[in-house]
Amino acid sequence: xxxxxxxxxxxxxxxxxxxxxxxxxxxxxxxxxxxxxxxxxxxxxxxxxxxxxxxxxxxxxxxxxxxxxxxxxxxxxxxxxxxxxxxxxxxxxxxxxxxxxxxxxxxxxxxxxxxxxxxxxxxxxxxxxxxxxxxxxxxxxxxxxxxxxxxxxxxxxxxxxxxxxxxxxxxxxxxxxxxxxxxxxxxxxxxxxxxxxxxxxxxxxxxx
Length: 208
Hints:
208 residues; alpha+beta; Gyrase A, domain 2; 5-stranded antiparallel beta sheet; 51% helix
């Protein structure tokens, strides 16, 4: 069978150009769609990574703040306990005149990084044991603060021992000093024993 193309030559070229143009448009749309999907996927991935990093940083900061808040609560609790003990000592030991300036000075010099474990005084001389957190310098800062007050003199820091744990740095310390301007207290007077009761007199014998 013989086929004869009855379309004019110019119309055939116009049809081919239209098809090529349509193909170009379709390919362009496909390429733009693929690029848009790739860009959107990359943007979402980068944004997700940034949000994950931000979330991790925020969680780390919250953990640090929680730890500091817990430590602050512990320090404040210890501080209140020490203040209560000092108040009790003031009430129970009013005979020792220098105790009032001693306790007031300690209360002024104390910080959240230092808390006391024992306090003893004999006359104007006193001895303090305590614990400093974070750095051993905080113990020396406490001693220097006492020495700077006019009430105290000869404040000397003893050995500072490292008693740190895996969670916190701690240092035990002991210092001694003297209250300035106070003479030695007189020794406590011994209680005078009560006089023994006089022996009962025997009744005189009756005369016969």
